[in-house]
Amino acid sequence: MTNRKSELETLRADLQARLSRYEAHQHREGGALEKDFEEQATQTQNDEVVDSLESETRAELTQVEHALERIENGVGDECESCGEAIDPRRLQVLPYTTVCIDCADD
Ligand SMILES: [Zn+2]
């Protein structure tokens, strides 16, 4: 099987890099309140977009870390919910998943 663990580690590094970019964006605007209204409105919209990207990325990162933990514990191929083996094809497509297709919500 392809090295799912190293794939997840790469993904984790990528997500962490993205998160620090979002955080840098959020902190950058600290004292810049002298813009005209339109610019402020645009900025606020951007911040909202970045906010939702940030929480999405954070959720993804949590999931990746969780999957890595299960691999470390030797149960990375088992469904977290029912304990059955997860289809390897499913793991190939979704390396960060921890449930089988029957237990998945989506
Ligand atoms: Zn299951």
UniProtKB/TrEMBL annotation:
Compositionally biased residues, Basic and acidic residues: 23-35
Region listing for Disordered, in residue ranges: 23-51
Domain of life: Bacteria
The DnaK suppressor protein-like N-terminal domain, residue ranges: 7-71
Stretches assigned to the Zinc finger DksA/TraR C4-type domain: 76-105
Any single Pfam family the record assigns to this protein: zf-dskA_traR
Keyword set, alphabetical order: Metal-binding, Zinc, Zinc-finger
GO terms of molecular function: zinc ion binding
Gene3D superfamilies reported for this sequence: DksA, coiled-coil domain
UniProt KW Isomerase keyword: no
Mapped zinc finger ranges (dksA C4-type): 79-103
PANTHER family: GENERAL STRESS PROTEIN 16O, RNA POLYMERASE-BINDING TRANSCRIPTION FACTOR DKSA-RELATED
Protein name: Conjugal transfer protein TraR
Organism: Marinobacter salinus
